[in-house]
Every structure is written in C-alpha cells, then in structure tokens.
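Side project, low priority. Logging it here so it doesn't get lost.
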Amino acid sequence: MKRTVLAAILALAAGLAGAQEYPTKPIRMVVAWPPGSVIDVLMRIISEPLARELGQPVVIDNRAGAAGVIGADYVAQAAPDGYTLLFTSAALNMVNAMGTKTAYKVPDSFTPIVNVCWSPLILVAHPSLNVKSPQDLVELAKARRGQLFYATAGNGAPSHFTAEMFRARTGIEATPVPFRGSPQAMTEQIAGRVAFHFAVSSTALPPIRDKKIVAIATTAKHRLAVAPDIPTMEEMGYPSFNASYWNGILGPAGLPTPIAERVAAAVNKVLARPDVQQRAAPSANEIDGKSGPQQMAKMIRDDYATWAEVVRVANIKPE
C-alpha cells in the first residue's frame, strides 16, 4: 500500500516538474478543418504570437475531413504531453450528439484547455433565387418541395446542424450537400449549385461584400459590427435562433492540469493583444479571452446538451 502511494506521489511530482519545464520543443497544433476555414485562419493569426509567448514554435497541421473527426481522432491517440493539441469547433459535440461512430469518446478522450472564440453563422442564398428574408426562403422551399439543396461544411458541422434546426422549425424540405469544409461549400454556393446555406461569418462576408451571394440573416445575438446591415434571425421573426458556436483547443485525455493551464494562459494573453484583435475583427468572430480548462469543460457539457436536443427535434442521423 505504501509503495503504491509513494509511486503515485513520485509520478505526480514528475508530471509537475515536466509541466514547469513545458514546452521544451515545438508544439503540433492539429487544425481539424481545411486551410481557409475559420479556425485555420484564426490559428494562423495567433500562432506566431503564441509561439513567442510559449517560447517554442507552434506548427499548424491541417487534418481536415468528416466534420473534424479525422483531426480529433489523431489527437485523441497522441501522448498527453502537451506537444500535440487539437483546435476544433463545436462540431466535436455535434458529431457525437448525432451518434456518429468514432474511435474516441467525447468528452472522455480529451482534456479541454481553452475556448478561443465564438463564430456566428450567416444564412446566405444565391442571388438568382431573389430571396430577401428567411420567410422568402421558406416560401420558395415549400413551392419547390424537396427540390432545394443546401451546402454544409460536413455532416455534423455547425452549418449542417443549424440548417437542420431551421428546417425543423419551418417545416421545409431541403437536402444537405456535405463538403470538406466551409471554403469548399462556399465555392459551390457562389456557383449556384446549391440554393442556400448557413455559412460561418469569416467565409461568408467576403463574397457578400462582392455581391456574389445574398446575406439574409445572422445567427448571432446581435448584429455584426463589421456588417451591421445584416439583421439577426431573431429580428426576422425567429426567436431564440442563436447558433454561434465555439472554437477551442483541447489536448488528449490525461494532459497534466499545469500544462493545460499554461497553454490557456498563453492563449488568453495573445487574444488580449490589440493587433490580434484587429486582425481577427473582419471575420466577425467574438473573441473569448476569459476561458480556461474548467470553464471550457463546463461549456462543452452545456453545449452538448443543446445540440443533443437539436438532434432529437430535427431527427438528425449520421451518414
């Protein structure tokens, strides 16, 4: 018994010593979405100042596909030493909520570290449809029952769940077309090969400004500071339709708490920098800056409950 206790104390001491020295080599940041996606853009904004804050390079490793599953699976199997971390979105919960089979378990296979920001979505449509409001879209979808297609950034992505929530609340029939990520979905939207979709703001705003697509409404609680002419879904008659989603950093299960706290503190310090906030502002993401391991763990639990209810109401099924 004494030997077991002693071994545990020694292991804890070794872990704490390692955490105090961390990091001593480059950190691999697995971005679970493709280049050009909201979290990829965000990580490229913060990676250099974060590297300076931590004293080691932060190497971005895009492992996209299956609504974040590929990247999440890679990190879940990594050593819990702080040198392989995951940057992903609420899709981690959404994929789990709809019952997709994965090699990992949420939240058991991960250590929450820090939420970076919240991303609003914008309901957009192709200009040829002459849709000006959500009600116009509903009317069109009911007139063309079962004939409209909408884009998603993958089955289980926020764009998929939000569209299904809209479909369930309005009673329309529309078919999802999943893509590898938001940039690919937007390419098809601009080309008119899909009628509409709920696009993340960072991907939607540039083609909206170029008038390649039409902005109908945002899922944010308030109008976006960088696009104040876009109304919210609530303003357009859809109360409690707030679907901004989190983007955060996690490690594998078993990551020592001091390492998680070290990374969280460094990220929050970077997010407080005016130059970082200025570079992130055009995408309309809401910087968190006050998150940490405990706060993020609670956020993930609460967020899962929200999307599990959407799965139930909208009857969302995995592919």
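Brief comment: The two ends are 50 Å apart (CA to CA).
Revisit when time allows.
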